Amino acid sequence: MNATKIRIVFDSVFYFSLALQGKIAIKIWELVLTQNHIELCLSAAHFNEIKAKLYGEDMRQILGVSYDEQLMGRICAKIAASHTHFYPNIKVDVCHDRDDNFLLELAKSCQANFIVTNDKQLLKLNPFEGARIVKIGEFLQQAHNWSR
Amino acid sequence: MSEATKLKPRTKKSDRRTVRIVIDEFLQSVIDTRKSRNAMLADADVVKILLGEKVTEEMRATQQQAGRDVLELVKQVQTPQSFQEMTADEQEAFIESQFN
Known about the structure:
The structure holds 2 protein chains of 2 kinds.
Chain A: E1 6-10, H1 12-19, H2 23-33, E2 38-42, H3 44-55, H4 57-63, H5 69-81, E3 84-85, H6 101-110, E4 114-116, H7 120-123, E5 132-134, H8 136-147
Parallel strand pairs in A: 1-2, 1-4, 2-3, 4-5
Helix pairs in contact in A: 1-2, 1-3, 2-8, 3-5
Chain B: H1 3-6, H2 13-50, H3 52-74, H4 81-84, H5 88-99
């Protein structure tokens, strides 16, 4: 196994899927946890976006009365603790959806190897600053290959 | 002689000297504190470099444990039955539809 670190940036929708026990997200998370050479990357802007997803109206609508804000808070805290934090001091303005530029700023700052997203606008930018931008399903295949 | 020139200085020469000594001592203590703080920071950097690999390994173990905790916590989320019964692709399509 190559000892070089592989840095990964998941978009916030991935964590939304993970919190809902989405089958692909759970599988990816389990595979990533077994790989010592994988480093998950996070910035403050990115973490705010994840929190917005987990505390947001969409999540509340899907879970209905069983939505547990305290539980979501604990999940957010553990997500933060499971990542390496970066502090991007660079501005990127290449994504059509300007709200997604913070993800690219993080990727550039941490020299990410992968940006994992299903966002069409972001996927159009592949590759970006040395990072491959791949769909969540495609990344699952990649994670399987690492675990072999 | 005007009234102003008749006024005595507010402090005696010896008092002014004492004040100067006190100020000098204070400034020296500030310099010493900074020197010692910089030395401490330099020491910390050396220790960090020497233990770099170990620190990284410890951090990694903490991150992995937090990752396992995430898995345990998301299992407590009461996801609707209809979502659980979807195929993996259907779930992804459903989630995408929420944001696009």
